[in-house]
């Protein structure tokens, strides 16, 4: 069981790849839950819209009750729901929320990995790819996958 955490479009493309791979008959994993930011007011009408990740998950037929949108990743009700899914591995990609130790302790053996589209820790923050371009770091096909732990 894998739990995916992400919010913007760049993360939706990662989720799309995971969902496609998990639907293969010989897949060794399934995406058991999706965690994303809560719907936010967007555009001129300030209409509440789901994140790109939530939108993609729904479009792909992922069960809505397994798409979690906690305000904070340390909420007791969310952590309880997550434990119920029994994740073996959590994968984050631009989730946008700090994961507390109580969250990181839930996957029993594999833990949590963070997929990041830049060279960490050199380029991080709100616009890591843009900073790498400004500093003319090439090639930009870098993928950083550090294990997460509280320091």
TrEMBL record:
Residues 2-135 form the Formyl transferase N-terminal domain. It is an enzyme of class 2 (transferase). GO terms for molecular function: methionyl-tRNA formyltransferase activity. Pfam families: Formyl_trans_N (PF00551). It comes from the Eukaryota. Its EC number is 2.1.2.9. GO terms for cellular component: mitochondrion. This is methionyl-tRNA formyltransferase.
